[in-house]
Amino acid sequence: MSAIIDTFIAPPCHDEIGIILQDDHLVIINKPAGLLSLSGKNPQNRDSVHHRLVKLFPGCTLVHRLDFGTSGLMVIARNKAINAALCQQFSQRTVTKVYSALLCGHLSNDEGVIDAAIAKDPALFPRMSVCAISGKPARSHYRVIERVYHKSEDGTLLPVTRVQLTPETGRTHQLRIHCQLLGYPILGCDLYGGILLPGTEKTPRLMLHAGELNFVHPVSGEKINARSSSPF
Questions:
Q1: CB under 8 Å to 216, separation ≥6 — which residues?
Q2: Which one, 7, 40, 103, 177, has least CB within 10 Å?
Q3: Each residue of 12-53: pLDDT tens digit?
Q4: How far apart are CA 226 and CA 29, in angstroms?
């Protein structure tokens, strides 16, 4: 197997992490786009959600991650027992995550399901690939919110579709790959075709935001329905 060499160096992120909810057991945050979830091996990639939060909440651990370019809601466990309980909810797929995204082009269908297994491929790193043989099952739902024209940095009017994306599974890059497979990549996605169309090259960020997170509080049993409005 090919050795994976990660050469990515994250540019500085000056945006603050927003704290949506906190108690003795967990913290729900709003992650800015352009911030790693977890620090990388390269010391230049030390800044991350975990690196910042562990200073405020010693012993905290990530339950799940968002891609570097994705903004939005994450739940952080404040101890190992809470992490295990929340991870169980994620693995049992009782946690609901809903994303907002801008896709390149105007989708013809108003809603649908993308079902395509996703696999790691060291030769393509950092991209993942669709592979029915070695991939893990991955399923995403999409629903059109509106079809509009987005003004790019150079003034070009780009046809885009705002969609609500609901992943059933949580594979790496799942929504980004599935939208590309659909034929409408997420605007600003450098790995899966979102900066290839004329006028998209200078899109300032990945237009993907985790806007809803629903789960059961592992201690109180209360239903937590966190919301964060889309910044784009």
A1: 89, 94, 222, 223, 224
A2: 7
A3: 999 999 999 999 999 999 999 999 999 988 889 999 999 999
A4: 9
Sign, Cα dihedral of 194, 120, 61, 13? negative
Helix (H) or strand (E) holding 146, with range, is: strand 139-151
The CB-side HSE value for 213 (13 A sphere, CA atoms) comes to 26
d(CA 102, CA 163): 6
Residue 156: what pLDDT?
A: 86
In the chain, the domains with their CATH numbers are 18-227 (3.30.2350.10)
Per-position DSSP letters for 185-196, written without gaps between them: PBTT-TTTTTT-
What is the model's pLDDT at position 1? 44
Q: How far apart are CA 7 and CA 87, in angstroms?
A: 30
Assess contact for 165 and 175: CB atoms under 8 A.
yes
Q: How far apart are CA 49 and CA 52, in angstroms?
A: 5
Instruction: Please count the other Cβ atoms lying within 10 Å of the Cβ belonging to residue 221.
Output: 7
